[in-house]
Amino acid sequence: xxxxxxxxxxxxxxxxxxxxxxxxxxxxxxxxxxxxxxxxxxxxxxxxxxxxxxxxxxxxxxxxxxxxxxxxxxxxxxxxxxxxxxxxxxxxxxxxxxxxxxxxxxxxxxxxxxxxxxxxxxxxxxxxxxxxxxxxxxxxxxxxxxxxxxxxxxxxxxxxxxxxxxxxxxxxxxxxxxxxxxxxxxxxxxxxxxxxxxxxxxxxxxxxxxxxxxxxxxxxxxxxxxxxxxxxxxxxxxxxxxxxxxxxxxxxxxxxxxxxxxxxxxxxxxxxxxxxxxxxxxxxxxxxxxxxxxxxxxxxxxxxxxxxxxxxxxxxxxxxxxxxxxxxxxxxxxxxxxxxxxxxxxxxxxxxxxxxxxxxxxxxxxxxxxxxxxxxxxxxxxxxxxxxxxxxxxxxxxxxxxxxxxxxxxxxxxxxxxxxxxxxxxxxxxxxxxxxxxxxxxxxxxxxxxxxxxxxxxxxxxxxxxxxxxxxxxxxxxxxxxxxxxxxxxxxxxxxxxxxxxxxxxxxxxxxxxxxxxxxxxxxxxxxxxxxxxxxxxxxxxxxxxxxxxxxxxxxxxxxxxxxxxxxxxxxxxxxxxxxxxxx
Length: 584
What we know:
The chain contains 25 helices and 3 strands.
């Protein structure tokens, strides 16, 4: 049967060669666009095993930016000239995703907020400081490439400082309310003892087999010199610019809508991060409804735990020392115990598991106190780099142990590591496999993964049950708080009050989270909206398939097409349900 189909396809191809032109044009466009992505992202290219750009970190100049936009317009014009109707179903999906990406790149350029290059969550200085974690270090060439790249940081730093100086003059700056302690994220990278610098860490590893002892000593000396004479001065320049120029010009209001074009920019960010056409008002109401639903569940758990009210139980688990680690090592051991327990349960809920493993590490000290509870950094199968689940071990009296199961399910498996590591193995268009991620899908999946802890039996104490519900409430509150700040005139104090009243999060976590929503508008909206859509699709599949519903197959169906917009996911699951009916 399959051979007959191939023969017919070949016959049609020779009979009507013009009919294949759109598919050929599209393949050529995909290939050229992916090659362009690798050139524009040389560090990612190295991690992906493409070594053509090992001597560069990328060009951040205005001229390079203008050329990139010209290239994007060219790709989009070519894409629009290819009729979607004449492509295969898979390529129609590829086309729609690429079109969305290119159009959003151009739309973002319209707003002055594009010059806001950092948030309380991320900045170019921290991205560069963590570069070594995304690169292979096995050969002499790997280390030589790394040293070359370290020496290029001043050019990157200067270009970004110029753009940020323009942003200051034009009023595109972060609010004063979120910047307390931000200087530490810059100054903390500067190491007086260069051997303790984050940049020097690769040179504390074993010497590569193709490097002689003399060459290794010379490389180590070169690294120490680059850190002392090139990197430390560049970070000091950034620190001084921040302290003297940026911080004094910080915004006095918390809403992005208070800036020029800010309301339109926020509407764009909402569409971009949620992959929906929901308005901020609609999202605000969804958040309030979800908060009411979760609050009722929290009340029930509190009663089961023997407390008269939700508030009384939350006060207990927020303040009782038994719920907190006393040392960073104790917290990391608990994280390790929980993650290995989850690992053992994964085959029960998933038919396909990734080959790439993950590890756990502490968040770097200079950013820990001002950043979130944890985050995930993807690895690279091509370069032999594992995924990493980073855990915040600062302010231990604000890091309760009862949140570790939900947190680990989200950041490691079956959340971010499982989803992203699987995507890295998929036979899909390379631009989607390696350079595409939609917040509503990726973070929606992470939040959905937390709920799977119930089916895994992880929430076996009232405190852990309340922790999971608190994390659900946290993401529902994001819908209310993010839209409240950027569309309804809320300030930071009101946002914090709402979070404190509705979640079980500790004060430090709430502070860091609200700072994140203020400085990174719209990003936090994707979590709950994506989770709601996945829950709805699972309920639909369970309803339509009845006893034929297989949870392992459903999870694979969600994940084995990579990260996609929510409307694409809905179409894919609809097709999967139909196929399951036919299969049964």
